[in-house]
Design brief:
The chain has 247 residues and is of the alpha/beta class. The chain has one domain: Rossmann fold. A 7-stranded parallel sheet has the order 3-2-1-4-5-6-7, sandwiched between helices. α3 links the parallel β4 and β5. The protein is globular.
């Protein structure tokens, strides 16, 4: 029976990904900064571990406790919407610490066991902002685009060892708390000069033509994790699929 470690399982995509892998018969190591019971099935195939992907000691402890893995799903991430001009570099760095360096650190931590066994897969969850420009998300897009390039290159260098690297690109989910963990309010990141530009964009967010459901992402991640071809990208959600096709 295969085992997947999934980051960012306290809510949203990560929670649904963990549930979906469990439903498909996998052992699941569901991680979050502060594990909470009652969110996930209480079976012997579901384990909860504490993990902060921005801390090396937390990563090492989680990987050691998890044991042998067949898949790593890097889902943990934070978002921030607003005019780039109004963002502090501390806020930008916080995005990169989780969305970029956290993913890289987790990946580097599992590669040795995957390479030694000549099997395993890393699935990195990015965003549909990598498929087409999204205004008021410059820093967030940059943090996710970095992982797109990282994963493509990684797939090439690990292929010789039988290890795969994949990308899942979710679309827009209105229920996602995009600014969660950033300790910043969107209102504070829209200077008065940007207000006329931002208003119709936020109106579009509140009434999107197409959206991504959490199950869409969970199914795409599972498909990516079990795909043995050289396919790299898996858009998730009707809007992301449309963007990928248009591109």
């Amino acid at each position: 029976m295969k085992t997947a470690l999934i980051t960012g399982c306290s809510s949203g995509y990560g929670l649904e990904i963990a549930r979906h892998f469990h439903a498909q018969g996998w052992n699941v190591v569901a991680t979050m900064r502060t594990p909470r019971g009652g969110l996930l099935p209480g079976t012997e195939r579901m384990r909860l571990l504490s993990l902060d992907v921005t801390r090396a000691d937390s990563i090492a402890a989680a990987i050691d406790a998890a044991g042998p893995l067949d898949a790593l799903v890097n889902n943990a991430g934070i978002g921030l919407v607003g005019a780039f001009e109004a963002m502090s570099m501390a806020q930008v760095r916080k995005l990169f610490e989780t969305n970029t360096f956290g993913v890289m650190a987790m990946t580097q931590a599992v590669i040795p066991q995957f390479r030694a066994r000549r099997s395993g897969v890393v699935v990195n969850v990015t965003s549909s902002v990598t498929l087409a420009p999204m205004p008021l998300a410059a820093a967030y897009t940059a943090s996710k685009m970095a992982i797109e390039g990282f994963t493509g290159s990684l797939a090439c260098e690990l292929e010789a060892f039988g290890v795969r690297a994949k990308l899942v690109e979710p679309g827009y989910a209105p229920t996602t708390r995009f600014a969660h963990n950033t300790e910043a309010r969107v209102e504070d990141l829209i200077p008065e000069a940007y207000a006329p530009f931002a208003a119709p964009i936020f109106a579009g967010f509140s009434n999107p033509a197409m959206v991504t459901r959490e199950i869409d992402v969970a199914e795409a991640v599972f498909l990516a994790a079990t795909d043995t071809s050289r396919r790299l990208r898996f858009p998730a959600g009707a809007d992301a699929v449309a963007l990928a096709r248009a591109g």
